[in-house]
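[Meeting: bench + compute handoff]

Bench side (C.D.) handed over the final construct sequence. Compute side (W.E.) agreed to return the predicted structure before the next meeting so the bench team could plan truncations. Sequence as handed over:
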Amino acid sequence: MHNPSSRRSSRRRAILVGRATRRLAWAVLALFLVASVPLAWSRGGLPSLVTLSAVDAMPTTSVSTTILPSTLPRQTPTTVETKPATAPTASPVIIPPQAGPVSVIRMAPSAEAKSAIPIATYNKRPLRVARTITMVVTAYCPGKCCCGSHADGITASGKSVKTNGMNLVAADTRLLPFNTVLSIPGYNAGNPVPVLDRGGAIKGNRLDLLMPTHEAAKKWGRKTLRVTVYEYVK
């Protein structure tokens, strides 16, 4: 027969051994967790101990990560807020105003300025317009048919009829003195000619143009023209 006290002692030892074994197993598991948690944390977290929650209804997405390990030191929950990516805003493009047609306004010179501008020359001397006169213009030749006894080839001013290539005029020297320079349309191509002669019938606003032949003088006839009177530029 077995001793009852011996049986109770064996059972008690078995219970104590079982408890010690379980405690040892829990201690080993706790050591394993303590050693493995920092390694897992450095590699990106503990998937089995992490709860993720996302709220998609808000314009700004909020991701809350809560760490609940029972064996870790107490950590403050971390909340990371991320804003949705927005398209880059294009910088405003400034278009410079296009240059339009440029209008050049030329101011007409005054009468004084016009008179000061040399526009012609005679004997290489610059001339400017002094005035214009409306005159009755006829023509004559240096022969006896026009000059009579004064057909000696010398004008009333003492100059030869061949002066200026026989391009000269007779005028009333009270109005236009000798050596006054004129321009008559249609005579000497409009170039300046001098007053070097006069005549008994040439009075007032009358001019007589010297022509090389009597036929040329007759062909000219009688004309009323606007004559330009020049003066020398000093």
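W.E. noted at the follow-up: DSSP finds four helices and ten strands in the chain. C.D. will use this when planning the next construct.
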